[in-house]
Amino acid sequence: MLNPFIDLLAELIHLYMLCVIAWTVVVTLISFKIINAYQPVVQRVMYALNRLCEPALRPIQKILPDLGGIDISPIILLLLLNFVRSALYTYFYSYPHL
After folding, report:
1. How far is CA 97 from each of CA 17, 32, 59, rounded to the nearest angstrom?
2. Residues 6+ apart with CB under 8 A from 66
3. Could you tell me if 88 and 10 are in contact, meaning their C-beta atoms sit under 8 angstroms apart?
4. Per-residue model confidence (pLDDT) at position 89
5. Main-chain phi, psi angles of 62, to 5 degrees
6. Which residues 6+ apart lie within 8 Å of 61 measured at CB?
7. What percent of the chain stands above pLDDT 90?
8. pLDDT tens for residues 16-62?
9. What is the three-state SS of 48-72?
10. Please, which pLDDT band fits residue 90 given cuts at 50, 70 and 90?
11. Are 77 and 58 contacting, i.e. CB atoms less than 8 angstroms apart?
């Protein structure tokens, strides 16, 4: 039996993963000076993405050692989110409940 709340939660996790990917792409494009960080549209997009992604990335960045300017916290966050989404499906859909 399918649970719509689990599906909704899994989709929200998936959307958040897309936000983290978009944040990573925009930050990379800004750091390589491909897009101008001073344009109003870019500033608004970065503000929104920072407000969405930084609260989840900050604790991971505190735990990670200094890697010389390489930030792998988005990769770790994506792995954790994918694990949680897979765990939801595995727990609620694979095992028979009594």
Report:
1. 29, 51, 35
2. none
3. yes
4. 87
5. -70, -35
6. 71, 73
7. 77
8. 999 999 999 999 999 999 999 999 999 999 999 999 999 999 999 99
9. HHHHHHHHHHHHHHHHCCCCCCCCC
10. confident
11. no
Residue type, position 72, single letter: I
Residues 65 and 56: their CA atoms lie apart, in Å, by: 17
Tokens of 73: 């916290």
List C-alpha distances in Å: 34 to 28, 42, 63, 70.
9, 12, 30, 18
Question: What would the two tokens of residue 72 be?
Answer: 């792998």
**What pLDDT is stored for residue 95 in this prediction?**
63
Pairwise CA distance, residues 14 & 28, whole Å: 21
Give the chain's end-to-end CA distance (angstroms, integer). Answer: 13
Cβ neighbors of 10 (< 8 A, separation 6 or more) are 85, 88, 89
95 token code pair = 């095992």
The tokens describing 53, both together, are 């992604």
